[in-house]
C-alpha cells in the first residue's frame, strides 16, 4: 500500500505540474493570431505594386504638353528642337485652347460685352501719357525717318480666385523696327539687378527693418530721352 501510494502521489504531482504549464501553452496558442494578423496585412504590398505604373506613365525623356489634360500629348525631348518655331507653336496652342482670350485690338474690344471696361482702361492710359507729356505735336515725318508702329496690349488682372479685378490697357511702341546705329546707339532698362534685390532683403532681415511694396503706375514714362522718336498716330 505504501509503495502504491507513493507511485500514485508522484503521478499526481506530475499531472499537477503539467496543468500548471498548460496555461502557458494556451497563452502561446492565443498569441498565434498575431502572426495571422501580420499575414493579413501583406496584401498592402500588391497595392503598392499596382500604384507604381501610375508614377511611370511619363518617361524620363518625355515632357507633357501645355494641353496634356485635353489631348494627352507628350513631347519627346530627344526629337524636339527648341527654337522660334517651337515657341510659336506653344503660344498658338495656349491661345487656341483659351476659352476666353484677351482682345488683340481696339476693334475686338468694341464687340465685347465688357467694352465699357476696356474703354475706361484705354482712356486711363491716354490720360497718363498726356499727363507725362510722352507725345509731342502731330507733325509730318521727315523723309529720312521711318516711324515706328504701335500696338495696344489688353490684359485682365485676376486674383487668386481667378476673378477679374482690373482691366489694363497699354499703348506700346514697336521698337523692334528701329535700326541699331541709325535710330539708336544703345539700350538700357532701369531694372534692379537680382543680386542687389537679394542684398537689400538680407540687409533688412539682419537689421530688423520693415520692407514696403510700392507700385508706380507707368514707371518707364518717367525716363528722359536724348533724341526724338517718330511713331504712327494710334487709333
Automatic annotation (TrEMBL):
Region (Disordered): 22-45
Matching InterPro entries: RVT_2
Domain of life: Eukaryota
Pfam families linked to this entry: RVT_2
Residues of the Reverse transcriptase Ty1/copia-type domain: 138-234
Protein name: Reverse transcriptase Ty1/copia-type domain-containing protein
Amino acid at each position: 500500500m505504501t509503495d502504491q501510494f507513493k507511485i500514485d502521489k508522484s503521478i499526481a504531482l506530475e499531472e499537477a505540474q503539467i496543468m500548471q504549464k498548460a496555461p502557458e501553452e494556451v497563452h502561446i496558442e492565443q498569441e498565434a493570431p498575431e502572426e495571422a494578423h501580420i499575414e493579413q496585412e501583406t496584401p498592402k504590398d500588391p497595392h503598392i505594386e499596382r500604384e507604381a505604373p501610375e508614377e511611370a506613365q511619363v518617361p524620363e525623356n518625355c515632357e507633357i504638353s501645355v494641353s496634356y489634360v485635353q489631348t494627352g500629348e507628350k513631347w519627346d525631348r530627344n526629337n524636339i528642337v527648341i527654337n522660334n518655331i517651337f515657341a510659336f507653336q506653344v503660344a498658338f496652342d495656349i491661345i487656341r485652347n483659351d476659352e476666353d482670350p484677351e482682345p488683340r485690338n481696339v476693334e475686338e474690344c468694341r464687340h465685347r460685352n465688357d467694352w465699357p471696361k476696356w474703354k475706361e482702361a484705354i482712356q486711363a492710359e491716354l490720360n497718363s501719357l498726356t499727363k507725362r507729356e510722352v507725345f509731342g505735336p502731330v507733325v509730318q515725318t521727315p523723309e529720312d525717318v521711318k516711324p515706328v508702329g504701335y500696338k495696344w496690349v489688353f490684359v485682365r488682372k485676376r486674383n487668386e480666385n481667378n476673378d477679374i479685378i482690373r482691366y489694363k490697357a497699354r499703348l506700346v511702341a514697336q521698337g523692334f523696327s528701329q535700326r541699331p546705329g541709325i535710330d539708336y546707339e544703345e539700350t538700357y532698362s532701369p531694372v534692379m539687378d537680382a543680386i542687389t534685390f537679394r542684398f537689400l532683403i538680407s540687409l533688412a532681415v539682419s537689421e530688423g527693418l520693415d520692407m514696403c511694396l510700392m507700385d508706380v503706375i507707368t514707371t518707364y514714362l518717367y525716363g528722359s530721352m536724348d533724341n526724338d522718336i517718330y511713331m504712327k498716330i494710334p487709333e
